[in-house]
Amino acid sequence: MQTQVLKKFWLLCLLFTFSSVASANLTIEITRGSDQALPIGVVPFAGSDGLPEDVAQIVQDDLERSGYFAPLARSAMFEQPSQSDDVQFGTWRSLDVRYLVVGQAEQTDGGFELQFELMDISGQRRMIGETVTVRGNDLRGAAHYISDQIFEEITDIRGAFSTKIAYVTAQGIGDDMQFGLYVADADGRRSEQVLTSDEPIMSPAWSPDGTKLAYVSFETERPAIYIQDVATGQRVQATSFDGINGAPAWSPDGRRIAMSLSKDGQPEIYIMDVANRSVERITNNNSIDTEPAWAPDGRSLLFTSDRSGGPQLYQYTLGGGEAQRLTFTGNYNARGRFSPDGEQIFLIHRSSRGYQVARQDLSGDRLVVLSESTRDESPSVAPNGTMVIFATQQGNSGVLSAVSADGRSSFRLPSAQGDVRDPAWSPFLN
Amino acid sequence: MQLKPLARSLAAALSIVVIAGCSSTGGTQDGDSYGSQDGSTTGSSTSGTGTGSQYGSTSGSGAGQQADSRIPEVRTIYFDYDRDTIKSEYESVVMAHARYLRANPNAQVVLHGHTDERGTREYNMALGERRANAVERFLNIQGVSPSQMSVVSYGEERPAVNGQDESAYAQNRRVVFNY
């Protein structure tokens, strides 16, 4: 049936490959610090003078951005030990530091060797330490790895500093626009352009193994869903239905993609089998159904529907019955995403102030606004559930912003290159 | 094909009554409109009521008698916040396109639906499609063949103007006739 037609559109295209754009990096501005952040000192690593990256600074920035830590300023460090034996606990206790990271860096034949140790100052003990071998020039990757180890040791939560974000950029206006799809480190650095087009690009979504992106591109002058291998740039057109082909979302097992198609009238939720491209219709009513998201257990879908009037979030259990309405606060709740444990949803809520990122526990229907900005869109949850990245406006420009899941801390990732929007936080990659 | 002016007006008025009755699936249905200029609320899943008089008030007027061999010059019509109702002031524009398309059966139009930037991107894709669908239905009732028309929603992805005030938003909520 549909498969026959679809196979015709299964176009292999190798034209779009990586091209790195040096100026595309996003920078970080901490906009709100948590009052419960743990004081930590990250001492500059010995031997790091002349290295291409300041590893301790990257670690310090990672920890600060998480909202869990309040790093001590370097200027306040009147000692700079590089190994645990040299740490004077009294010195650091007098600075109100609870944890201390010390380390050293060394250039080797094939790259670098980093050693770090994490100290518990009040407990006067060494918590962990490791030697990290860096092949090639990947000091930033090694620094994010060290941040992950420190974060997990102290918080018992897996670190998500080694993950990536995908996002869309737009420049120009009206008929004269340029769109780009980028993949960058979770701190906005090392961005790489993976697609460019003079037609809109929307809704990037990571496959659960982190190797592919599904997204919407208008390059044929109408919307279609494409799947692209992030490493090779190889891509295929996965859908070519009449009307809207939108909002792709991979199932947790990576075999299916939920999406919104309007081929039969108004937008409805469908599930596509990735292997054979067949689609199964999930919703069926006379209203807008879009923005599907999979529950972490793969058994239900969250989606936006205006079946009750304005947009609200509904949950549909696969293979069973009617969709259940989840949101009742206000008259605009859309674009929901589950927390990794499946117990909360993050969404865009229209409050009296505007469109804001909000959280709702699934055990109740109380909704909590998290963001302070008022033109927010596209929330995407970090794989460890600690932060939500989203798009918002700063002045007349679209920027990415992130807020902790508890709303206590936030940061912004401004860009020099036009509007930035539609962020998608990758799964764990290591 | 030439109808006398009175007959044309009657035909237009009749078809408009029909389209008003048909628009029940189209209303954007969000009663409380944050930042909206018009305070009207429909508040239910059908919005067919209340639009008939709006259409009727100016139907058949102002369309002019331009030559149907040329694509009408005005190719953009604008919408109220959260609405897909074709405003009476733009009926003459849509009628002119209907005449052109009827007179030129080989002509093809792609109706591009757009929203302002507020709200979520994929939901706005759906709202932009509703606007373009409303124009397509109107044209169809005016006798334009479905084979001459197609709809593409751009949602909020291609704003006509930048800016975060109502005047910018108003210029971005639009349907564009592309030949």
Structure report:
Helix content of chain A is 10%, strand content 44%. Chain A is mainly beta. Chain A folds into two domains: 2-22 and 163-425, TolB, C-terminal domain (Neuraminidase); 33-155, TolB, N-terminal domain (Rossmann fold, 3-Layer(aba) Sandwich). In chain A, the strands form seven sheets. Chain A has a five-stranded antiparallel β-sheet, with no helix packed on it. In chain A, strands 2-30-29-28-27 form a five-stranded antiparallel β-sheet, with no helix packed on it. In chain A, strands 4-3-5-6-7 form a five-stranded mixed β-sheet, with helices on one face. In chain A, helix 2 (55-65) packs across helix 4. The radius of gyration of chain A is 23 Å and the shape is globular. Chain B has 179 residues and is α+β, with helices and mostly antiparallel strands. Chain B has one domain (5-178): OmpA-like domain (60s Ribosomal Protein L30, Chain: A, 2-Layer Sandwich), CATH 3.30.1330. In chain B, 39% of the residues lie in helices and 12% in strands. A four-stranded mixed β-sheet of chain B has the order 1-4-2-3. The two termini of chain B are 23 Å apart. In chain B, 45% of the residues are buried.
List the SSEs and their pairings:
The complex is a heterodimer of chains A (430) and B (179).
Chain A: H1 2-8, E1 12-13, E2 29-32, E3 38-42, H2 55-65, E4 69-71, H3 89-94, E5 99-107, E6 111-120, E7 125-135, H4 139-155, E8 164-173, E9 176-185, E10 192-197, E11 201-206, E12 212-217, E13 224-229, E14 235-237, E15 245-250, E16 256-261, E17 268-273, E18 279-281, E19 289-294, E20 300-305, E21 312-317, E22 320-325, E23 333-338, E24 344-350, E25 355-361, E26 367-369, E27 377-381, E28 387-394, E29 397-404, E30 410-413, E31 419-425
Parallel strand pairs in A: 3-4, 3-5
Antiparallel strand pairs in A: 1-14, 2-30, 5-6, 6-7, 8-9, 8-31, 9-10, 11-12, 12-13, 13-14, 15-16, 16-17, 17-18, 19-20, 20-21, 21-22, 23-24, 24-25, 25-26, 27-28, 28-29, 29-30
Helix pairs in contact in A: 2-4
Chain B: H1 5-22, H2 52-58, E1 76-78, H3 88-103, E2 109-114, H4 121-141, E3 149-155, H5 166-172, E4 174-178
Parallel strand pairs in B: 2-3
Antiparallel strand pairs in B: 1-4, 2-4
Helix pairs in contact in B: 3-4
Function (chain B): Part of the Tol-Pal system, which plays a role in outer membrane invagination during cell division and is important for maintaining outer membrane integrity.
Domain OmpA-like (chain B): 66-179
Organism (chain B): Vreelandella titanicae BH1
